Request: fold
Amino acid sequence: MFPEVLIPTDLSETSATMVERIGEVPGVREVILFHALRGSTDLSPAGEEALNRMKETVQSQGCTARVVVEEVKTDIPARILQIARENNVDLIAIGVRDPGLFRNLFSGNIAATLLRDAVVDVLIMPQSARNGPPLWARLLVPTDLADPAPEIRTLLRDSGGVGGALLLNVMEPGRTEQEVADRLAAIRVELATPSREVEVLTRTGDPARTICAVAEEFEASMVVMPRIGRRDAAGAATLGSVTGAVATCVKRPLLVLAIPIHVQIETRELRSEEFRLAEEIWVDYHGLKADPKTDRIFGVFADGRLVSVARCRRHPDGYEVDGVFTPIRFRGRGYARRAMNALVEACQHDTLYMHAVRELVDFYGQYGFVSIPESDLPPTIWERYAFAMGEMEGVNVQPMRRPPVRFIQ
Reply:
């Protein structure tokens, strides 16, 4: 399962904990021990001895070991991730101190940065787990009730030995207990193996804190989670909010799987009964309200969730494009571009006006909008910024117009 493993080590007892237990990782054949020298300092005799001991410890567990020592002047996590890519490693294994793994995923902590930015599986071993039970003996597997990924099935089937697993769901609002129970039972059947009994458990509360608490109650040997869950898959974050929060509180080994999540994207015009969804997004964008009598709203749905919108509003003397907005957590995925594509394609036969934020003039220029003086705006559209008293530049706004020409994506 994990033939090539990279262990970053600072030669401390914390990283030695990971080295001592690497033989429990299924399928491991070679371990790369990487030590970064800060500045131009040479490796000391004591450091060389510590690395040799780690190498011997790896070899004593039936794995080959390769030591890489190099000077890294700036970004150590970036260099570790580069080495992982260059060597096509299957797993990055990190030892961390207690209590908890790391308090702030954005603090500059090397282990936290690796977890946040890695594109391969990551195993985090707290120092207190040095003498813990076998890693695969009692697995805690949180689930959001989505179909189990093949990687989870493979993990439970091929991890070797015997043991148990607890399938945990922290209920989301809107789901009934019976619905959750039925779904958990179905997933349990999918994940059960001859050598591993799978139990199920439902709890309520904050997802991350509940997972960490159950890990202690269950005396889990390891917690297994995907890097991104369904609730975060539509966004641009590299690490899901629940998984990231669990990493700050769990005291058990944590295996974070880089499971690809395929998000179903749909771009279309909203029906009038769906306008409330746009208003929920606009809460953070001037609190705009929608009016079915005058508005056409185009949205992007990711797995059924509205993640970006753009509006064309009919005024007595023209059509105005506004309300183009994507919440921060969904940015970076091209959703705003999809929404604008849909709007301009549907409204291409009309002259369209807008008050563009100046930083986005080039963006809207790709859709045929050109900058115009305020005096060229239809009166009712100009009135929205009448408070600027003819100085829209002073409020960082540029009037724009798109003639009724064919739109070609």
